[in-house]
Design brief:
The chain contains 12 helices and 15 strands. The strands form 4 sheets. An 8-stranded parallel beta sheet has the order 6-7-8-9-10-11-12-13. A 3-stranded antiparallel beta sheet has the order 1-4-5, sandwiched between helices. A two-stranded antiparallel ribbon has the order 2-3. The chain binds magnesium ion.
Length: 341
């Protein structure tokens, strides 16, 4: 059994809240984000991390700030053994996944910098095996979405937000302006029967996969959709941590992992392994975040099938540069740690 020793207060976590200015208001089936998205960045002994708490999962920058203040005095002196540190964090912070993710990210960045290697190398991954990221087209009137699609020329794969009475019309309009691969994300908006009907139509327009068609906790609904649809079904809101995966395995074809949902890179790694053991495909997704959070996640993408890491492309004032794109393919920075500047 692991012994957990709590040290004297050290106050070694520095935190900062940053307002990220969006290029355009961003809308999905259940909410709209206007001009500003707040993220928290942390620094722990030279390692940096970031988190973009999501209200949908009951977290805000305020709850994450309190969690980070609470854990700061409990962090041990030895920060190299990230598994041990995260056990202490887990025991103290429980459901504060956003705060956990920021700490986990900063610890990985710190260790990579200390050893002088990029994160992908820390994990023994091949940086040339990164996938192309999709680029998200937020909900709007069909004509406006077609216009946004025209402007998304640089990106070879599109992820289109749906969940409205106009869903099929939207895809028809988009197909008038592009023949690129399209992923669809309904963000829980459809009933199971509606999903089956719409997916049948979407398949005719060459849509490649459908993310979270139905309510998060309606697993029989998801299973019904999967059994009656020809497109792969990917769970997002239905899957947060590795322990959620076994029961989902017969309901979907794949899962969407996000650091903010699962609590960091260690848990994301665990999720990839559990998903593979259950024969599921894996997407790595994101919130609206800066290049710091996006680049950290990108280091894991040699292990996944689909990347949806475009959160930093939706903001107007990115405080960092890190991962870049070459015809949509993620190019990892070859600098120690996460490698952002
Ligand atoms: Mg999604």
């Amino acid at each position: 059994m692991t012994q957990i020793h709590l040290n004297e207060p050290q106050g070694i976590i520095k935190t900062q809240i940053t307002d990220l200015q969006l290029q355009h208001p961003f809308k999905i089936a259940r909410r709209a984000t206007d001009a500003i998205r707040q993220v928290i960045s942390v620094e722990i002994d030279g390692g940096i991390g970031e988190t973009a708490p999501a209200r949908f999962y009951g977290e805000t920058v305020q709850t994450a700030s309190v969690a980070l203040e609470t854990i700061a005095p409990a962090l041990p002196k030895d920060l190299d053994a990230i598994h041990d540190v995260m056990e202490i964090v887990e025991a103290t912070l429980g459901g504060n996944y956003a705060a956990k993710s920021a700490i986990d990210m900063a610890l990985h960045d710190r260790l990579g910098k200390k050893l002088g290697v990029p994160l992908y190398q820390l994990w023994g991954l091949n940086p040339r095996k990164t996938p192309c990221t999709s680029f998200t087209i937020g909900l709007d009137e069909p004509e406006v979405m077609a216009e946004k699609t025209r402007h998304a020329e640089a990106y070879p794969i599109l992820k289109v937000k749906l969940g409205t009475p106009q869903d099929i019309e939207i895809i028809q309009k988009l197909r008038e302006v592009t023949d690129k691969p399209i992923y669809v994300d309904a963000n829980t908006a459809w009933t199971p029967k509606e999903a089956v009907r719409k997916i049948r139509d979407l398949a005719r327009y060459g849509v490649e996969l459908v993310e979270q068609p139905t309510k998060p906790y309606d697993l029989p609904g998801l299973k019904f959709v999967r059994e009656h649809s020809e497109l792969p079904i990917i769970a997002d809101e239905s899957v947060k941590r590795a322990s959620d995966i076994p029961v989902l395995a017969e309901c979907v074809d794949g899962i969407n992992i996000k650091l903010v949902k699962c609590g960091g890179l260690l848990e994301a790694h665990r999720m990839i392994n559990v998903a593979r053991a259950h024969g599921l495909s894996v997407m790595l997704g994101c919130m609206i975040e800066s290049s710091l959070g996006i680049t950290a996640a990108a280091h894991l993408t040699p292990l996944v099938d689909y990347a949806d890491l475009d959160g930093h492309l939706l903001i107007a004032s990115d405080p960092y540069t890190g991962v870049s794109l070459d015809k949509g393919q993620l190019i990892l920075p070859n600098r120690p740690g996460i490698g952002v500047r």
